[in-house]
Amino acid sequence: MSSILYDEVPSLDLAHFTNGSPEQKEAFVQDLGAAYNNIGFVAIKNHGLTNEMTEKLYTAIQKFFALPDEVKQKYEVPELAGQRGYIGKGKEHAKGRSTGDLKEFYHIGQEVTDGDPIKNEYPDNIWPEEVPEMEAIGKEVYKTLENAGVKMLQAIALYLGLDEHYFDQKVHNGNSILRPIHYFPIENPEAVPADAVRAAEHGDINLITLLMGASADGLQVLRNDGKWIPITALPDQLVVNVGDMLSRHTNNKLKSTIHRVVNPPKDKMGTSRYSIPFFMHPRSEMDLTCLESCIDDAHPKLYDDITAGEFLEQRLAEIGLRKK
User: Fold this and answer.
1) Residue 191: φ, ψ to 5°
2) N or C: which end of the chain has fewer CB within 10 A?
């Protein structure tokens, strides 16, 4: 696959995969593979998330993040290592850094409803009593993005020469997280550490990330020639990128591309930015061993064998959420 230097993230129509002709479906698979070989990001439409759902969730999370810090902290449970509820300002940092990101966020996790014993692995979700509407819309958006993620993974499986449903059971009741983020206003830019940014450059931990449209510019992706390019999606699109688990499982055939959220110009530092990514994780027992089909003489095996659960625990410690 020749290297393509994209100036913007490629746009695809998920309906071509789910409801299109055989030719449209195959074209979607190949276009997705080309993008994930090169830049690791695409923007998709016809994903199932409606404008109404988006507006409802953004309204609810803005209401929550506007609460006083001491109220929000009622929903922070340190022993959960940030897996549910509120995570306070500056608590998370990128792997390899110690300066905390200029953000606060909330974690909504899997709701197991079919008697699957994996429920015992997951803490219960935490819902703020001050914003009761957050529970219903949070659960609805979670399931909608999870469904879209399953379809994306089916296309990825076909691209990799696997059975279309290779990932289905691996992500059924997976350890996925919906993360509403508030990049809070910086009233006094001189008072924050010189190297503090909204989200330092990083790769995501999970299989794939589905990002709802952010409320302001700032997201950038590192192209493979070293140039940072802005990620912008139309209002009806989701941005979907490869995470480290999928990159590892495919022996880096699919790229988990480094990305960041840069600070706004100083005259806009006093404004908020909101963003809601859905981090799609498999079940903890998924074997992330490099696929044999992705290993050859030109591409020797790069990673030790590990399960998704083991990899997640390592990374939570590296980013400051789990105490080492």
Assistant:
1) -90, -10
2) C
